[in-house]
Amino acid sequence: MQIKIIAAAILLGIIGFMSAYTVESGNVAVERTLGKVNHEEQLQGLNFKMPFLTNSIEFSAKEIAIDINDLTPKAADNLSLKDLDVSVFYRVPKDRVSELMVKYAAAAVRGADGIYMPAYGLLVREARAAIYEQVSEIDSLQLHKQRELLQTDVLEELQGRLNQSDSGDIIVTRVVVRALNTDPSIEAAIRDAVEAEKRLEAKQVQVEIAKKDAEIEIERAKGIAEANNIINSSLTAEYLQHEVNTALLRFADNDGSVVVIPANMQGFEMILDSGQLRRGNE
Length: 282
What we know:
Number of strands: 10
Low-confidence stretches: 271-282
CATH topology of the largest domain: Tetrahydropterin Synthase, Chain A
CATH superfamily of the largest domain: Band 7 domain
Number of helices: 7
Distance between the termini: 179 Å
Strand order of the largest sheet: 3-2-5
Strand content: 15-25%
CATH class of the largest domain: Alpha Beta
Number of domains: 4
CATH architecture of the largest domain: 2-Layer Sandwich
Order of helices and strands: HEEEEEEEHEEHHEHHH
Shape: rod-shaped
């Protein structure tokens, strides 16, 4: 009798153990009983199932990373990249995991922790296609400068592909280009292009400096010309005659001892006080 009780207790313990299971935070479990899938996902915490008849499969509902490495797509100029490494991040809404498990049963991949990643294989295939498509739209010499644009375009392309058949079921959250290495000959061309661009920028700066210097010289010449015009307009014949007479009077203002008359008086007439001349003759 005692053996039966112990055996019953052990059996009940096994049944209890087989009936209960836990789901980690951020994950969901999908139950399948005799081949039929229950589309009501079981959430985190302690859950119960029919022992022996029901299997529970735990799926990640967190953000999942896919590393796609060693790609060699062709750019818009028909030159192939040496190496392109991209990480794609996606997640599946908790209430859509069971549907994707049924639809893409072969695409689910079990991780090292024993948790399944829904539609993982599908994402890998579609992500590769999206990456190749978008790289082909950009010249190889421009890919380094347009890495962020490439990431955005790949995300939009991939999400568009997934929405065609599974709208709202798979959400691409991020795309990160981790490594982008072009052919060595292309790398040399990129360096040459950068150096040429820097030289062009330096030349443009020199041109701007030359333009400014020329503008300064033009303004200086305008100032000199304007000053000369003012001076020339004031040098009338009467004014020049007055200046000559003033100079002669200063030479003569030395008690009559010495008077200096310029040797060349062409073009100038002496204007003398006639009254003073008469008094001098008397």
